[in-house]
Amino acid sequence: MSERSNIKDVSALAGVSIKTVSRVLNGHRYVSTDTKERVEKAMQELGFRPSVAARILAGTKSGQIALIYDNHSPYYMNQIQMGCWEACQQNGSRLLAQPVDVADPLVGEQVRGLVTETHVDGIVLSSPVTDCVPVLKALEGMDIPFVRISPGTNHAMTSSVFMDDAQAADDMTSYLIARGHRHIGFVKGHSNHMASEERLFGYRRALDRAGLPFEPALIAPGEFDFDSGVAAAQRFLKGKRRPTAIFASNDDMAAGVLSVAHDMGLGVPDDLSVVGFDDTMVARMVWPQLTTIRQPTRELAHAATQLLLEGAQATHRRLPHDLIERASVARINPDLLS
Amino acid sequence: MSERSNIKDVSALAGVSIKTVSRVLNGHRYVSTDTKERVEKAMQELGFRPSVAARILAGTKSGQIALIYDNHSPYYMNQIQMGCWEACQQNGSRLLAQPVDVADPLVGEQVRGLVTETHVDGIVLSSPVTDCVPVLKALEGMDIPFVRISPGTNHAMTSSVFMDDAQAADDMTSYLIARGHRHIGFVKGHSNHMASEERLFGYRRALDRAGLPFEPALIAPGEFDFDSGVAAAQRFLKGKRRPTAIFASNDDMAAGVLSVAHDMGLGVPDDLSVVGFDDTMVARMVWPQLTTIRQPTRELAHAATQLLLEGAQATHRRLPHDLIERASVARINPDLLS
DNA sequence: CTGTTAGCGCATTCAA
DNA sequence: TTGAATGCGCTAACAG
């Protein structure tokens, strides 16, 4: 019941040549329906499974792709993996998930090793590996297709998949404006990241469109971490002209803002609305009172993988985002609105 | 710079036979230090990496193992993957992470396909695949070694790695007793899971040792989900002889308990201590006031993988747990202690 | 539509 | 301590 059967066994049982078996295996046309069925029955009976190793060695494609990542948040990575996985499933490909350390001086070599050892047909890069120069260089030097998910910098000649950060920030800002907010604090993200500027741009664009002034005092710097949110909130909330809402560029910073608000005895969202981007995917679990822009992480991963499997060259795909509204955020203390 | 070089190129450059290169590749003894160095230098120069495919085809081991899982919580899975990954790194093996759907009637076939197609040398099973009969059967029928991480049922003849649930529950209960609690509600886990009985047993053992009576009224059934925690808390907290502490068998149920306590205006931990097991690894993020037993998930995965790679037969390894104490839990309202 | 002949890159006999 | 031959299971030309 457990002997490994090979293509020869199948061909013998079906009474055809091994090449014919190979043909039905690869879904080749020019196989009569009759023999095809016979071969398939034989494969079934023997529980035949083609050895990937042999296919790699003999053929040109391995049917395998790799996902390379470095610990982003577990929730985020889970979404990424699932998205890639689903796309692979649909395509009949295998996925090799490979964690790396982008700070390791040998990452480039490691990736090169992975590719030459496993013969993967392509690579999906997830943040922050998307912007790891040694990896990018290694890949480019090897002539292997790769796609980047939400890259932080724009390498024109590589394929990528991303969301429209400017539009998302615009949507969120408009959302707040529509609810009566006129003074909206904005906590900016790390300047290394392309998304930071985009999000700020969207915020400004929404203010503009609504005819509201852009007040530099309402912009705080940040680095996408909890402490940045704390610092920003302290600055905003201890001033006399307190914003009625704070828009943090990601969820970790939003959490920092929330904690300060809480310490100051401010009710959220009654005294202060706090909104953000759900970058690490934890926001909705931990702070249900938060209205967030959901990054379509899983969909991005899926699209990236599909792109890779389809072999499209230097394609950039922009995916839509979601604004996840919490009922609670709408309850704003009217006294605070100016 | 990117041509794939093979063992022949190396042998030519080093001026030795193919076989000798193969020997140094596999760390074989009986190679003179001199030639070994020469070969290694040649490999370096050519950027040579052995093709796994060729090794699989020609040899008997693939140097690959698979981790099979079904969506547990992302945090949990992240720990599992990292643990397996680290062990593989140390061993120079590759890890194939394979999600499956245990409810799919074809899981068995899928796993069989994975094994025969990829030639993996062994399998690590993570909950709930540890108890998926079709998978277990497929594996046993294929004569491939596998190790189970925290299995729910005890298949005597398979290797497994787990924590001591009884001792952990005992520790937690003793911890509460030491802080003055005399009436401790216990929310039991799903009866399908071996850990449920173990944890209850540990709870009872601690009470016994402290000379406290076991009160059946203080035991509530549960199914490891939020709602079970809610139901149990309602029963406990609406009765007249309210427990001063509630010990939930996992964190989802602890969350349910917390939500009820909150709705009833009970301060945690001032009016009620709530403790639990950190099964899904989210507890510490979401409810910092919770004192929990941390499952050594990563360590379990590491140990399981090591076991597999070492080829130990039918070994069972028990790992120690941690009790993660929050300062807050110690502040108990003395009025509530009887 | 189908079969024949070569290898893919390595480990594994055997021999030296 | 080393080398020469053989074949793993499959696909890729080429035939027919």
Automatic annotation (TrEMBL), chains A, B:
Pfam families per the UniProt record, alphabetical: LacI, Peripla_BP_3
Gene3D superfamilies: 3.40.50.2300, lambda repressor-like DNA-binding domains
CDD domains: HTH_LacI, PBP1_SalR
Transcription regulation keyword on record: yes
Domain HTH lacI-type: start-end pairs: 5-59
Gene Ontology molecular function, alphabetical: DNA-binding transcription factor activity; transcription cis-regulatory region binding
DNA-binding among keywords: yes
Organism domain of life: Bacteria
Keywords linked to the UniProt accession: DNA-binding, Transcription, Transcription regulation
Protein name: LacI family transcriptional regulator
Lineage, opening ranks: Bacteria, Pseudomonadati, Pseudomonadota, Alphaproteobacteria, Sphingomonadales
